[in-house]
Amino acid sequence: KRIIAAFAICLATATLAGAEEARIITTTGMGSVERAPDMAMVSLGVTHQAPQAADALAATSTGVAVVLDRLVEASVAERDVQTGTISLQPLWSNRGGQEPSEPQITGYVARNSVTVRVRDLSVLGGLLDAMVRDGANTFDGLSFALQDPEPAMAEARAAAVRDAMARAAQLAEAAGVVLGPVQSITEGGASFAPRMEMAAARMSDAGGVPVAPGELSISAQVTMVFAIAD
User: Fold this and answer.
1) Beta strand extents in the chain (DSSP E only)
2) What is the pTM of this model?
3) Nearest to residue 128, comparing CAs of 206, 213, 183?
4) pLDDT under 50: residue ranges of the chain
């Protein structure tokens, strides 16, 4: 009987504790801000094909050297230029074909790519045009970013907290309870994405490839737990 009574007391205590823990409101808030980008990331390179591997690689290396010289002339810092991919692949004939002859290497293709941070968007179009004229013949993409994203992130987080608090207050009012203090805040991550409403394409001051920086949308998410006041 004593064991049963003790078990009953423990069960009642656990139930009360569980009920007390359940007196919370949990909400997830979202916040976002828009900023015009002030930096571009460009990935491009040089590809050449030749009968001999050394010739293909040499032609590619020469082309990339010219592109790198152009970047130096444009005052792009060394820290903003990074080699991405260097590759050399054979070219095959009759590979997978119906003819009975064995596949043969007919040449080689070499590729050298670089990633460039352009911190002055006013020269971006002209710089792209110049690098292509200098020998860059592969283009892997262009993206925009912020050089210092933290202030925008801080605003997005603050907006997310306000959103979570407003949601919690609304839920408490609808449920007829009093919203208590914050018990915990968990950041759910952040994201950077271009807005769909892009600015009209424009030429850089120096002329060249049209570019449209548009705006970036910086988003943050937080999950907040509030106590329900007595």
Assistant:
1) 24-35, 39-50, 81-93, 104-118, 138-145, 178-194, 216-229
2) 0.72
3) 206
4) 4-19, 196-206
